[in-house]
Amino acid sequence: MRLMTFRYAGQDHAGVLVPDGIAPVLEINTRHDLRIPNSLLQIIQEDIREIPTAGVRPIRLEEIEPRLPYEVPPKIWCIGLNYKSHAEDIAAVQPEEPGSFMKPASCMFQPGGNIFLPPPEVSSDVDAEGELGLVIGRSCRFVPVEKACEVIYGYTTTLDLTALDVLRKNPRYLTRAKSIDTFFTFGPVIVTADEVPDVDALEVITEHNEGICSRDFVRNMKHRPFNLVAFHSDFFTLHPGDIISTGCPKGARIRAGDSVRARIEGVGTVSANVLPGNRQPFGFNA
Question: Which of 119, 123, 190, 258 could form a disulfide with 163 if both were Cys (CB 3.0 to 4.6 A apart)?
Answer without folding.
Answer: 123
